[in-house]
Amino acid sequence: MSEVTTKLPGAFRRIHLQLAREPGHPAGDPDERYILIAPLQDDGRIDGNLARDYRDACRVVRDHEGETAVGHLVHGPRGVWRFEYDISGQATPERGFRLGDEVMREGEYVAIIRDDGEHPYRVAAVQRV
Q: How many domains does the chain divide into?
């Protein structure tokens, strides 16, 4: 990914999300995480215009229970941000709840909707790509 990222605009960031407190995980779980590569506006929100222009560069890595999946962060209809993976030939979309409205700064929280429900994640780090 480094070859692609060297040509990206300065707005692109690596955003680390870690599972926050929830039932079954009273202390959260730093080993259940996502890493997003996405352009951010000055206010910390995802820049949808740049994301459309650099669609292939908007990536997601999911690391859950020791299994890693790599996919794309896709801006879909009605402003919904989806995580699309191709695992064993089956599409497994996930999505962020109002992800386009969320501020991606350390300490903030976002919700990820998976097939087993909605889960809170804490923004653990935001770094330049």
A: 1
